[in-house]
Design brief:
heterodimer, A: 219 residues, B: 210 residues, alpha/beta, 4-stranded antiparallel sheet
Chain lengths: 219, 210
């Protein structure tokens, strides 16, 4: 546990000094939201379209920043230094924690902006917040693992989104469906399947990543 | 004197990169109180061998065994016993020297290490620069700080790849003093082509003859 926390704190320290990931992720979110808002104009989109747009913005914004956590270690040649002092699973979990916090920060900014700009009316906040909370684990867990895989490739940026999309598709599908229902006055029982799918996906991707990370990180 | 009796055993290590055979059946054994030098021409696999020995890279075949008082140390605990200084290992440039030191010390679960840090910073002539970001250090100062970070936990096995790299005469003298102390009762592994460095070693392994 201590190593996980120390890896997380080290990444927070670095991020405070460079602000690379947080700037990339927030600027991407704001630019995309503005582009979507201008393109839709006065057209009143349905809850289904708005839920899909919200998750598309969230997905691509997170893709612009989540990979940085491992790319930075490879590009600055500190990956070997880190390998020398930490167990692989602790490195994964420390970086997963950092990406999870980064995603939550992104959502704190993005959700109110999206609601205000796109006139997105959420009826059941319990469903919406549960979806976001559980979905974050899958997004951060999968994103962190894909970041570790692509950090050793030469075309890192493009590869991350392309590789992450099929892996994170279950989160997107379930997230869009649950968010739509949150805007259509559904009850918590109506989104049971989506929340279960998000939860199961989060658990599976995190456990699989912990088990497989040693092979990715040390090769 | 160190109470631990460590042994580092390389058993028929083979490393291939695609079709290119870098290391062929490299075997040796070194114990506490002795030293070994790895030498060979450029591109012969010296650094690859050091990385394999430090658990940073997996061999294609063969194995590296660390024994502590004849008991094999599990792979995931090896980091507690080793220290490595090499030109390819970098420190966190945005962080200060002290932040780097604290990170590595805490990761190794060290406690009450302030006096050890002060002593090493003094030896490597870095006292007073603790709060400066590593990116403001010259390459020689960064090399000396790498020694501080690698020696914090008094490693039972110290790996040094190119000991003189980027160092001035004062730095080389400080490093030599440390290396002499290390080989008295612990294990020292040097990767070098320098004849003076080779004189520090009890055994010499030549690579690149595959």
């Amino acid at each position: 546990m201590r190593q996980i926390w120390l890896v997380f704190l080290k990444d927070v320290q670095q991020e405070f000094k460079t602000r690379y990931a947080i700037n990339a992720i927030l600027l991407f979110a704001i630019v995309t939201l503005s582009a979507v808002s201008f393109s839709i104009g006065t057209y009143t989109a349905t809850a289904r379209i708005l839920a899909a747009l919200f998750w598309v913005i969230l997905f691509f914004s997170s893709m612009s920043g989540l990979s940085h956590i491992f790319i930075r270690e490879e590009e600055t040649h500190t990956a070997d230094t880190l390998k020398l002092v930490a167990r692989p699973a602790n490195i994964y979990l420390g970086k997963f924690l950092f990406n999870l916090i980064l995603l939550i920060l992104l959502e704190i900014i993005l959700i109110p902006l999206f609601i205000a700009v796109m006139n997105f009316q959420i009826v059941n906040y319990q469903i919406f917040l549960s979806t976001m909370f559980i979905g974050n684990f899958g997004l951060a867990g999968g994103g962190t693992m894909v970041a570790a895989i692509i950090s050793k490739a030469s075309t890192k940026g493009a590869l991350f989104t392309v590789l992450a999309f099929p892996i994170l598709l279950p989160v997107l599908v379930s997230g869009i469906s649950a968010t739509r229902k949150a805007a259509e006055s559904a009850k918590l029982m109506d989104v049971q399947n989506e929340l279960q799918a998000l939860f199961a996906y989060g658990v599976i991707i995190i456990v699989a990543s912990i088990l497989l990370f040693d092979f990715v990180w040390n090769e | 004197m160190s109470k631990t009796k460590m042994e580092l055993i390389a058993d028929k290590i083979v490393k291939r990169f695609g079709h290119f055979l870098v290391l062929k059946n490299v075997s040796f054994k070194v114990g506490s109180g002795s030293s070994i030098a790895i030498t060979g021409p450029n591109g012969s696999g010296k650094t690859t061998l050091v990385k394999i020995l430090c658990n940073l890279m997996a061999p294609t075949r063969g194995q590296v065994i660390y024994q502590n008082n004849h008991k094999t140390i599990e792979r995931e605990h090896i980091f507690r016993f080793i220290g490595l200084v090499g030109p390819y290992l970098q420190l966190y440039q945005e962080l200060s020297a002290r932040e780097n030191i604290d990170f590595f010390a805490r990761m190794r679960n060290l406690k009450n290490y302030s006096s050890r840090v002060a002593q090493l910073m003094e030896v490597f002539n870095l006292t007073g620069r603790e709060k400066d970001a590593v990116k403001t250090y010259s390459s020689g100062m960064q090399q000396r700080l790498k020694y501080v970070c690698a020696l914090l936990h008094e490693p039972e096995v110290l790996f040094v790849d190119e000991p003189r790299s980027n160092l001035d005469q004062k730095g080389i003298a400080a490093v030599y003093h440390i290396l002499q102390e290390q080989k008295k009762d612990k294990i020292l592994v040097i990767s070098t082509n320098d004849q003076e460095d080779l004189a520090l070693a009890d055994q010499i392994i030549k690579v690149g003859t595959a």
